[in-house]
Amino acid sequence: MMSLSTVLEQKAQEQSQLYGPLVITLVQIELWDYFNSVAVAAKYAISSKKANRVVIIDWDIHHGNGTQDICYEDQNILFISLHRAGFGKKYFYPATGRATETGKGEGNGSNLNIAWMSGKIGDSEYAAAFSELILPLVSAYDPDLVLISAGFDAAKGDLIGDCDLMPAIYYQLTKSLLIALGEDIPIVVALEGGYNLDVISMCMRAVVLALVDEPFDEEGLYHDEETENSPEIIKIDESLSKLSLKSDPRIERLQQSRQSLSRYWSHGKSIEDQTVKVKKTAIQAINLSIRCILRSNMW
Questions:
Q1: Which of 39, 31, 32, 91 is nearest to 65 (CA)?
Q2: 152 vs 9, 56, 83, 162, 197, CA distance in Å?
Q3: 186 near 7, Cβ under 8 Å?
Q4: Which long-range contacts (CB under 8 A, 24 or more apart) does 95-103 make?
């Protein structure tokens, strides 16, 4: 926890740092899961009064079940997991993380699951999820610290994830968070792995370049195949009362962060007018998560 303390005590321009490798999730002791470093770091930041509100974003393709269990009743930790659903006949480990699981007790509304119902999810689907749901939610929550559980098994070429994210989208997702949060909010990235070392190294390099504000070579950018007749995404902004003040500086930062993702997904455009079409099942998953989180007490 000394490293986290150092991050929280540094000046804003020095606050983006990298730590890894860290282990993924912990519900019960298994061969590869012993210590949930990210959840412990979040709890430590709050208990030591170095942060009042912490956001954890887990973009590993497997649901962050251990982090969810640890933080499920804690209103001071907003946990966000993007993962493949693995329910029923479509089993995918660990078969947890439904959109309806939004937290419990005082933590009701502090848990967000975006569960993809199929493989082959790509750049545009993740950009849409960030632009329409994650970025406005994080902005409204107004955290003091953001922790990213950075597994890269959703990347194209991973041996297990069966999804199609390219390194360039990890660069842009990281940049969008940096823009939305502003210079004063530290981001800590925990490398949690994947199942193709070449893919992991390329994706982590992209995240590092975003953190240190260096350009990324986007040659070879992958776009998913077009899918017609997708439903529109629910507009969440007007439902977030914490973003209702037009003078709030978070509004402008949110707009800028969405603009950084515009080559993948353009906020404000209809599905029909998007440059790159996204999977219908992905839009349905995002909408389900929006409906569930807005039904909770916090929002």
A1: 39
A2: 29, 16, 11, 11, 10
A3: yes
A4: 96/63, 96/65, 96/68, 97/63, 97/64, 97/65, 97/68, 99/285, 99/288, 99/289, 99/291, 99/292, 100/292, 101/68, 101/72, 102/292, 102/293, 102/295, 102/296, 103/72, 103/73, 103/75, 103/296, 103/298
Query: In the beta sheet, which residues pair with residue 58?
Result: 81, 149
**If DSSP codes are grouped into helix, strand and coil, which group holds residue 190?**
strand
d(CA 226, CA 85) in angstroms, rounded, equals 22
The residue to which tokens 């956001």 are assigned: 55
Q: How far out from the chain centre does Cα 57 lie?
A: 4
CA Rg value for the chain = 18
Q: What is the pTM of this model?
A: 0.87
pLDDT tens digits in sequence order for the chain, 299 residues long? 556 766 666 633 444 444 443 333 333 334 445 568 899 999 999 999 999 999 999 999 999 999 999 999 999 999 999 999 988 778 999 999 999 999 999 999 999 999 999 999 999 999 999 999 999 999 999 999 999 999 999 999 999 999 999 999 999 999 999 999 998 999 999 998 899 999 999 999 999 999 999 898 765 333 344 444 567 888 887 777 655 555 688 889 999 999 999 999 999 998 888 988 889 999 999 999 999 999 998 88
Pick from 168, 149, 169, 128: nearest CA to 281: 128
Nearest Cα to Cα of residue 81 among 150, 166, 173, 158? 150
Which backbone phi and psi does 105 adopt, to 5 degrees? 60, -130
